[in-house]
Design brief:
0% helix; mainly beta; 10-stranded antiparallel sheet
Length: 400
Amino acid sequence: MSPAGASIFSLPMAAAHDPLAPRSFVAGLRAADKKITLTLVDEHGAEAFRTDVFTGVAWSSDAELHVYAAARGAWVVWRGPVDGGRTQRAVFVNDDGQLASTATDVAPAHCAIGDVLYVVHGGAVAMVAPDGGARRMWLADPSADFSLMCDDGRALLMSESEDGVFVEVPDDAGLHRFAAFNAESEGRTTALYSHGENAGIVRIGGTQATLRDLHDGGLSRSRTRRLALDEDDDIVVVDAIGLGPLLVTTHEGEGACDGGIALAPRVSAVLVPRASPSGDAGAEAGASFVNAELAAPVCGRERGPFWSGAAGTDVVVAWGERIRQAGKSVAPVAAVGFARIRADGTVTDRGVIDLSADAVVDASCDAHECYAAALLRPAGDDDQKPEAVRVFPLRSSQTR
């Protein structure tokens, strides 16, 4: 049985909690009707509206669905089959359930600040309003590889090409481009970071990191920090707290389980300090920090996907806990793990929320909490039935 008033969908599904009210926007595929539908649900799961956003759609293994909540409604972005072809389009839905405009073409790099959608598409970065009107700023190198981040009221682009790595910042005055690293610089991970007033770019190479803060006039000079990283650590999330960029890592191979059962990796957080031990943010002296464990290895589980978000000045890291014995009668997701990290680097809350679901995704944050959304599968049901979506806060009161 599904909860009364629940949103019933098949995969893919997506959700975003309203940062200003106790409600969430939930979208998903209604496979039998070939539609992507958006619902607005309150904190108890009751629907305020149900709106068909895209029609003629079909499931595919690489389809993607995103929802961005705003004060006046939500953006819904679909990448997948439509009427026998493929499309990447976005539509804004007002909070009364009415479509604000016709669909807008998008690309894989997109994010939103309030009700403005930022898209890298057609050699430009576009700022798209709910009515479909857009302001475009042309990119210096449209052939580069781009990533896009929206956080703390600003959008940041990172472009990578044979000319090097650049940070690009769109604002009312235009698109500002700053050289970050040269093409010869080696690193296993390069990422943007943003938290409050602090933003910049970090490059991880081996067991050290190089970071450059973003200021009004450009990027600060490079600073190198030693890290408590092992070469076998996988970096799965890059976020930031006030002290600097925060790397979430997994480490395989610690111990073994009886009978060859899978061992989920250890999950840790590693700080890349903006300031040196002397407190001088511009000093070159490296600093060594010990990993903070977010979750110990556990038998019978696999971990992923990972995501993070900001709840006020805290960062919440979360991940799905999957079981290998999943099948037509056993749901693959058995739990959601999470940890909350304060601005001073202290881990204040962590836990595991048990559930039975076919998928779990990030449902964004408000000023106090971060949320997840799960496509629930009741015991005994198979994997062919549409299912209810539950949105819930990531906090220890939800754990077993």
